[in-house]
Amino acid sequence: MQVLGGNKSHDEEEVMPVMDLESSSQDTMLKGSAWMTAGSIFSRILGAIYIIPWMAWMGSDYPAANALFAKGYNIYSLFLIVSTAGIPGAISKQISHYNALDEYSTGNKLFKHGLKIMTFMGVIFGAVMFFGAPVLATLFTDGDPRSIPVIKSLAVAVLIIPILSILRGYLQGYSDMAPSAISQFIEQIARVIYMLVATYLIMVVNKGSYINAVVQSTFAAFIGAAVAIAILVLAILKKLPKLRRLSRSSKPVENLNERNFTREIFEQAVPFIILDAGITFFNLFDQSTFNQFMRMFVNATGAQLDNYYSLFGFQANKLIMIIVSLSSAMAVTAVPILSGLYSKGDKAKIEDQISNTLELFFFIMIPASLGMYAVAQPLWTTFYRYDALGVLMLQFSSVISILLGLFTVLSAVLQALYRNKLAIKYFIYGFIVKVVAQLPMIGIFHEFGPLVATSIGMAVVSWLMLRELHLSYPFQTGRLSRRISGIILFSLIMFISVMFVNWVVFHFVGNSDRIISVVVLVLEAGLGGVIYGYLVLKTSLADKILGSKVERIRRIFNIK
């Protein structure tokens, strides 16, 4: 894998095809996942850290501001997915397909045509969101007039983010993840700087309205996207001569006009729209029904219901998406690899790559989710101040994050293997289960009900997708189950150790001090990482999943 816009050693090499099928696709997967994971983790962490000063400056208006921000962003997420129309994922998949067949010039023409479509989509859906803000507020926020300017501010970002997405998709089609990861992180930095400066000036300096502060905080999405586009354009321009050489030496374009390209793009894009929006659809259903369903079973004010929704729908969700983004990184990396293998018709390597993808997913997600469960109390207190219900919400959400991540990876794998219709059908089945389960689960579990319903729906989807993959590509379930068993065992040892430390510390020092929580969080996260890392290195489980390069880490720490 070559990195566009990378360091000097990369610049001295030629841009390579999507992958060398004679080399290990596992290495490509690991390198790509490492870049995307780093970008996702750092940007997600930064996106969570900003809440500390943001909450302090909002003061007593924080609960209302937080709920307003969450409602606007859920609508924005849906429009973002629809406006990009799944085309970035489709472009990545199809460029990988053409590159595997030595048809680079065809892939480039596809990208150029897709860029025109994305520009058009941004303008159309940005306008719909801006001018249709009152209608959207009625549909998704129970007619809350405060949400209208928030929706309009996010509509501006929808104008340009489709272009940002397709630029990332183009580079990812070459299994070139570094520019995407770097742009993702810098996008977040620019966004956070703008929103914090704007919030400070409005709330602290001018003693203004929290609604105006939320509007500027959401407008920051446009600022971040503009900076990220500039970075990706520079990365592509830097490698343009080498990309042109590949295009000139490739097979010529045959029997394809713009109409063919448009049909091809949208045929592959529609599944990405639906499945990329999967978690967002679940969240929007919660947002649209939570207050009404809760009123059937509990006697609570609108402010109390907003607080309950904010706990799981925004605050806990914001933290668990840090670890769910790990699976998104793997999914983005897996699509071009599997698409290239599919184009070559190499079933044996596809089966092996599916096994590698699933093993890597569980190797990272199980300890990450259990680790977040274990440190939920200091983590929640650090970001939001101590709240017993909030801590429970985060712990429950942490477990569900495994299912959310598994759905993300499995849907991407099925799409990469051109099983689009089945992937959509299984998602619809899971969503129907979620809808049916929502009311009874809220009746039984009250504010935890939406999370229980989500876990049931996602479990159904994941089981159906896993079954289909194994029927079509019978990967090694024996090997997979043995390694997952080891991962679960070592994760539980780590989990119990951290939970014990957590109980001892907060038993003596109390649970409300934010500074103490930060220190405990850092110590517990470090302890958990050391325990899990030592166990997987000592037993060579890491070698089996990550490859022989792990041996160097073992030598550094003198683990035999």
UniProtKB/TrEMBL annotation:
Question: What is the protein's name according to its record?
Answer: Export protein
Q: Which residues are in coiled coils?
A: none
Main location, first listed in the record: membrane
Which InterPro entries does this entry report, sorted A to Z? PG_synth_SpoVB, Poly_Biosynth_Transport, Polysacc_synth
Keywords annotated in UniProt? Cell membrane, Membrane, Transmembrane, Transmembrane helix
Q: Which organism is it from?
A: Companilactobacillus kimchii DSM 13961 = JCM 10707
Q: Does the keyword Transmembrane apply?
A: yes
Q: How does it sit in the membrane?
A: Multi-pass membrane protein
What are the transmembrane regions? 34-53, 73-91, 117-141, 153-171, 192-213, 219-237, 265-285, 319-339, 360-380, 392-414, 426-442, 448-466, 487-509, 515-537
Cellular location(s): Cell membrane
This protein's record includes keyword Ligase = no
Q: Name the source's superkingdom.
A: Bacteria
